[in-house]
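Researcher: Go.
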Amino acid sequence: MIRLSVRNNFPAVARQMDRLPEQLANKAMVRALNKTVDQGKTEMARAISSEFRVKVGDAKRRLSVTRARFKGVLHLEAVLEATRPGGLHNNDARGMNLIHFVVGGQPKRTAKGKLRQLNIQIKRSGGRKQIKGAFIATNKRTGGTAVFIREGKDRMPIATKTTIDIPQMFNTKRLNQAVREVMLKRFSTNFDREVKAILQGFVR
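Model: Structure:
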């Protein structure tokens, strides 16, 4: 989770706000916070996709923004976090099924009839990993395809195979810190632009 708070992250900007009319300052602050957190969402999706075999759009759909508010109760904080399907958040114990990282599709048999192993690649810079005994089948609960593995020597029972999810990718220390730094750098520029835009509106 990345939080942008006026008091905690931008004390210099908070002092600048004291020199502006309160309504103007608050309006500019809310707009700047929301602009910055939206930029952070795009930046994080790109960062995740550059390191893991996840599409930018798929990563972005799993990033949630809690926006700052000007109307009603003033709320000068914006939050960027990652969610799982159904609105589950960072600390929920679930992962992405390996189906998202399969390379080459369903394992096929060799000329001698031996079943090849399923190939998985999670990181773009990492090598492929073979999952012994894993196979692709329809998930009766969701209706989609998933990677399964038998839990014993018998045909049943089987279990889904999961791995790192978007929230865990989000919380990779290097990615999280890099995106946080980008957001902190962009905020001051966004705030100055919003102040100018609002002042120009008043002049008209």
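Model: The helical segments are 6-9, 11-17, 22-51, 56-61, 166-170, 173-203.
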